[in-house]
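Narrative of activities, Objective 1.

The group set out to show that a structural description can be obtained from nothing but a protein's sequence at a throughput compatible with the screening campaign. Below is one input-output pair from the validation batch, recorded exactly as produced.
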Amino acid sequence: MKAKYLEFLHHTLITEQLESPIVSVAADVLVIPVTHPYVRKTIGAVGAEALTLANGQPGQLLVVNDYVDGGGGAGSITPATCTGFATAVLDQAGDTFVFYYVDDTVGWIVLGAVGVAAQPVLTV
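Output recorded for this entry:
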């Protein structure tokens, strides 16, 4: 039997589209915006960036990509509310996390992670 409809019983998937779904975030800017579904983050060249991720809207998908890596830094994303992990680490250009915001109790969960050299690190 084939499924004809995809139905979310408890959440509405947010599908509104901005003029551009992509936002670029410069090196040393430590806030990951939740205003766009796709974030291209440049990681600074020296040291680690302690990145923050605010709560989103229930049903929100967010892709965060290490778009440009300065060569020596890593970006550790720490959400305000999350389940299943504490931080997600962007270490190499091309590393990508896909987050889904459930609600203000569960917060962000990780739907997927892709790494160029190795699987990106999640800490618990």
